[in-house]
């Protein structure tokens, strides 16, 4: 009997470059993915601009991620220092796309230098759907490209879904209009056509109806990343002197509604006022992380903070969202339905009040409502506006009425079993790494073409 070992030699670590779109709703999930890959011993580089890199939370000590800054070119009309959607009003996004496309040459130089050294040559580049010039650079250097996709609900077909008129019209305007010389639709299909595979922040356990539709529709391998939930403790430490946490410490268990509409989705001031008055009339305790709205004007209705003092706190600027959602005083979450936000809410089993604003948030909200983990605020079919009475109805259904709250809490806790299953999501990252190795071994060219039906 042989005593020698027949085990295969260890595989060398992969070298992966991640380059997200210039929005923190994209940067932070990419950082989470980068850290998960790096913690497995892979060499990971995250590329962005100096201002965005400076604003990222420091990578966790156990996960070494190399951060590379490429200077964002100046564009007339774009405010100085504006390097992300967080820094500009929505009507200046086309200017940010124009500046973003100016990163084509610096990225090509970065990739050329990396590929000239076999010790640094990337095995993969992973980008968002907007980076048409990164796809061209990857093809020139024969580095396989992966494209990052969010939830399947935004890309699959749901015949039963009733998409509001305002959302459909906004979507056509947002995705079909010129953004730096190309529409978002054109960017999406250009990158998808040239990628080897798509990596989706989802899984069949979360979207059993929609996830299996995506690969056949776009005729590309779609590899699940899992939901990339953050560490339940926030993972990066929170100052115990944070005012929001001190306020929550003084509230009864499960009594407070956390309100946050993300850093990328400001409301017009009149809608902020309706939301404020709805929170006031609903009568629940609330902690509101408020961003300055588009268009200027008085931020809150006159006398609002005085009338709600003692049961409500409005916090301007950054707040420790994961730690807030994990606090025992929080009993629900009013959210814009950005993917990172609802994942963080359901990580702790919080029922949701749903107030989608743009992009894939509408399809996310419909998916969450279908799962009965929350209720949407009623909207005007034509312009998408809401009023205080719609806010009151949704907040009270989720936070106050025992019968309806019981349903939403039970389903949120059921969803938590998937979202908080760290073994499941770790397994998806391991399988993603194996898919990267497999496709790289099969050849570096893109496989398949995007179907004409997908473009329809």
From TrEMBL:
EC number(s) per UniProt?
A: 2.4.1.-
A Gene Ontology molecular function term for this protein is:
glycosyltransferase activity
Instruction: Report the enzyme's class at the first EC level.
Output: transferase
User: Which residue range or ranges hold the Glycosyltransferase subfamily 4-like N-terminal domain?
Assistant: 31-157
Keyword Glycosyltransferase in record: yes
Q: Which InterPro entries match?
A: Glyco_trans_4-like_N, UDP-glycosyltransf_plant, UDP_glucos_trans, UDP_glycos_trans_CS
Quote the Pfam families the UniProt record gives. Answer: Glyco_trans_4_4 (PF13579), UDPGT (PF00201)
Gene3D superfamilies reported in the protein's UniProt record: Glycogen Phosphorylase B
What keywords were assigned to this record?
Glycosyltransferase, Transferase
Q: Which CDD domains match?
A: GT1_Gtf-like
The UniProt entry's sequence similarity note says: Belongs to the UDP-glycosyltransferase family.
Q: What is this protein called?
A: Glycosyltransferase
**What organism is recorded for this protein?**
Urochloa decumbens
């Amino acid at each position: 009997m042989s005593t020698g070992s027949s085990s295969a030699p260890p595989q060398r670590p992969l070298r992966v470059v991640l380059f997200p779109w210039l929005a923190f709703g994209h940067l932070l999930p990419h950082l989470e993915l980068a850290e998960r890959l790096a913690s497995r011993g892979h060499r990971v580089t995250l590329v962005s601009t100096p201002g965005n890199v400076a604003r990222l939370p420091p990578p966790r000590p156990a996960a070494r991620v190399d951060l590379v800054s490429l200077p964002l070119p100046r564009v007339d009309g774009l405010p100085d220092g504006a390097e992300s959607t967080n820094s500009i009003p929505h009507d200046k996004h086309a200017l940010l796309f124009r500046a973003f496309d100016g990163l084509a040459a610096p990225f090509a130089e970065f990739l050329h230098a990396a590929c000239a050294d076999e010790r640094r040559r990337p095995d993969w580049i992973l980008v968002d759907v907007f980076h048409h010039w990164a796809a061209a650079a990857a093809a020139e250097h024969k580095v396989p490209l992966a494209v990052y996709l969010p939830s399947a609900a935004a890309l699959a077909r749901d015949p039963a879904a009733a998409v509001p008129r305002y959302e459909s019209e906004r979507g056509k305007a947002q995705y079909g209009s010129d953004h730096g010389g190309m529409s978002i639709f054109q960017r999406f299909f250009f990158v998808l056509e040239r990628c080897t595979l798509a990596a989706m922040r989802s899984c069949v356990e979360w979207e059993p109806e929609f996830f299996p539709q995506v690969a056949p529709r776009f005729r590309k391998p779609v590899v699940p990343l899992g939901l990339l939930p953050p560490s339940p403790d926030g993972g990066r430490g929170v100052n115990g002197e944070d005012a929001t946490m001190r306020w929550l410490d003084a509230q009864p268990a499960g009594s407070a509604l956390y309100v946050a509409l993300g850093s990328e989705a400001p409301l017009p001031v009149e809608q902020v006022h309706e939301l404020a008055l709805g929170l006031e009339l609903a009568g629940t305790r609330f902690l509101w992380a408020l961003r300055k709205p588009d268009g200027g004007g008085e931020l809150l209705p006159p006398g609002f903070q005085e009338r709600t003092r003692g049961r409500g706190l409005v916090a301007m600027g950054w707040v420790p969202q994961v730690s807030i959602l994990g606090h025992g005083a929080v009993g629900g979450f009013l959210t814009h339905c950005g993917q990172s936000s609802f994942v963080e809410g359901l990580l702790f089993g919080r029922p949701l009040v749903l107030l989608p604003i743009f992009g894939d948030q509408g399809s996310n909200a419909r998916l969450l409502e279908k799962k009965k983990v929350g209720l949407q605020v009623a909207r005007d079919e034509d312009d998408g506006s809401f009023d205080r009475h719609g806010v009151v109805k949704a907040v009270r259904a989720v936070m106050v009425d025992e019968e309806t709250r019981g349903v939403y809490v039970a389903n949120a806790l059921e969803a938590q079993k998937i979202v908080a299953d760290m073994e499941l999501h770790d397994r998806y990252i391991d399988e993603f790494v194996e898919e990267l190795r497999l496709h790289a071994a099969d050849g570096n060219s893109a496989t398949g073409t995007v179907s004409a039906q997908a473009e329809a």
